Amino acid sequence: MIVSLVLACLVALGFTAAGVPKVLALAPMRNLATEAGFSGGACRAIGMLEVAGAAVGPVVPVVGVLAASGLFLLMVAAVITHRRKGDGLRDMTPALACVILVACYLGVLIAT
User: Fold this and answer.
1) Which 3 state secondary structure label does DSSP give 5?
2) End-to-end distance of the chain based on CA atoms, in angstroms?
3) Which of these, 22, 45, 71, 87, could form a disulfide with 53 (CB 3.0-4.6 Å)?
């Protein structure tokens, strides 16, 4: 139970911190989205998905598995996008860390 709560908090904080700047279309996020070939609207949509997954998952346990699954797929897509851009490990590290974090959270949710 404690592990699940800690992981839920980490997921919520991490994805809120990652999603809010995208939703607000802050310049660094717009620039990164443009480099990756995404429009400003797509960047905002990704941010909204991150914030929604972070907010809903820990609050509504029944939906938690679905939210975590969506975040996992979103981060796998982020890693693929980084690879296609030719980014190195340093640029991919946040996305890889999120994949691992969400996978652990999802594993704990499914196990309980």
Assistant:
1) helix
2) 8
3) 71
Q: For the segment 72-106, what is each residue's pLDDT rounded down to a tens digit?
A: 999 999 999 999 999 999 999 999 999 999 999 99
What would the two tokens of residue 92 be?
């991919």
Is residue 8 a contact partner of residue 108, using CB atoms and an 8 Å limit?
Answer: no
DSSP state of 30: H
Q: Smallest Cα–Cα separation from 75: which of 12, 5, 13, 15?
A: 15
Identify the H or E element spanning 51: helix 40-59
Helix (H) or strand (E) holding 19: helix 2-23
> Which two three-digit tokens encode residue 11?
């997921």
pLDDT at 111 over 90: no
Nearest to 52 by CA among 29, 68, 39: 68
